[in-house]
Amino acid sequence: MPKLTVLTRDGDARTVDAETGLSVMENIRDNGFDELLALCGGCCSCATCHVHVDDDWINKVGPPNDDEDDLLESSDHKNENSRLSCQIEMTDDLDGLTVQIAPED
Ligand code: FES
């Protein structure tokens, strides 16, 4: 199982065993991080699953798609590492991925 490290808004880090085939959002939610609201359930329509991908991983994870980028534009906390975690599928290639839950808008 690939590892996923999640930093909370306070900067606390926890590493979990991630399930492949699920999104990063689902892995975060299923591991009890209640800061990540993910209100739309992964339909790419709420932007409450916003994360900042660690610098070492952003190239591998890649940029947001167009719809995702439009939604991210509504956030005051968008930066060059921003992604909606429901739009990132967890794969074995992402073993070690680190993301931080973005501040609330
Ligand atoms: S969960 Fe709503 S956009 Fe990701």
Structure notes:
With 105 residues, the protein is an alpha+beta fold. It has a single domain, classed as Beta-grasp domain (Ubiquitin-like (UB roll), Roll), CATH 3.10.20.30. Helix content is 17%, strand content 21%. The protein is built from three helices and five strands, in the order E-E-H-E-H-H-E-E. It has a five-stranded mixed β-sheet. The mean pLDDT is 97. The chain binds FE2/S2 (inorganic) cluster. The site of FE2/S2 (inorganic) cluster has 13 residues, from loops.
Q: Supply the helix-strand structural class.
A: alpha+beta
CATH superfamily: Beta-grasp domain
Low-confidence blocks of residues? none
Q: pLDDT average, as an integer?
A: 97
- The fraction of residues assigned to DSSP E strands is 15-25%
Termini separation: 32 Å
What is the total tally of β strands?
Answer: 5
At the fold tier of CATH, the topology name is Ubiquitin-like (UB roll)
**Number of helical runs?**
3
Radius of gyration: 12 Å
Major β-sheet annotation: 5 strands, mixed
Return the CATH architecture: Roll
Strand order of the largest sheet: 2-1-5-3-4
Number of domains: 1
